[in-house]
Amino acid sequence: MFTSSELSEIQKLLTPNHNIVIITHYNPDGDAIGSSLGLKHFLKQKGLEANIIVPNDFPKFLKWMPGAKQIIIADYKRKQAGEAIYNADVIFVLDFNASHRSGNLVGPWIEKARATKILIDHHQQPDDFDYIYSDVTIPATSQMIYHFIQELNEENLVNQEIAECLYTGIMTDTGGFRFRSTSATTHRIVANLIEKGADPATITSNTWDTNTVSRLQLLALILGRIEVVKEGKVAILWLKRDELKEFGFQKGDTEGFVNYGLSIMGTQVAAFFMEDLYDDFIKISFRSKDEVDVNQFSRNYFNGGGHINAAGGKYMKSMEETIVDFKEKIEQEDF
């Protein structure tokens, strides 16, 4: 958490005469959107306005959240996003640890911005910012936003809108409270959010009960060819670009697919490889159990990173070459 002196300095920055911008990472997920909206609504409770900027569009199943329609998508509104960042006095950097994680458009804007930059994030090895609240033991940035509110002694400002957004972020980034990093503190915060108006049944339905026929067809395809290697410890799933197009892929359709590999009895690692829809690279998602560190594995071999049990990567080879390289590298790992 920020030190008491840092909190005092940050509090002084949060004034009506300052332009406040909230930015999250490329390909925003539930925690990115939940933490950003949660913080925006909290600032609104303090009488402050803030713009949320995301580098590119986010899944439809997150657009039910209060305030989601006001989010500025830089890919669609480049001028508005660029001007907001240029004119910002304060920038909150949420759910990513380095400017380049916000993409080739927004990343350079962050680096050039004159604003005071405040990082709140739970990924490893954060870059330097003016103020840094980084804790890799916390399962979701949305939980960190709640802690931030607590440290400001302003929990009384948490309303239903804030509660719904932070609950969604915590729920999605903990896999429905299943991941190992989910703590007793996490559950206590979730209980507080429920008391403030977050309804678990409604949020779960809005966020996860959103299957389409095309998504289920993609899921059926990928489940029909799961490959298990390394004596049953590693599951491999993959999708090619032409398959995505065939089934009418939309952003968010493959969310959670990698977890099916990890659900197989005896597996310690699941890897999901997907050809990018437009560019010639492979997007990779890694998940693991217990002490198996896919963050370091991804950093070492696949130009990525993340958390010990959840990481991503990017590879510039073909699908066939990527899977061959992965199999070679994973066999060298000792677990």
TrEMBL record:
Classification via InterPro entries: DDH_dom, DHH_sf, DHHA1_dom, Oligoribo/pAp-PDE_c-di-AMP_PDE
Domain of life where this protein originates: Bacteria
PANTHER family the record matches: BIFUNCTIONAL OLIGORIBONUCLEASE AND PAP PHOSPHATASE NRNA
Listed name of the protein: Bifunctional oligoribonuclease and PAP phosphatase nrnA
DDH domain: residues covered: 19-170
Keyword S-adenosyl-L-methionine: no
Pfam annotation, one family: DHHA1
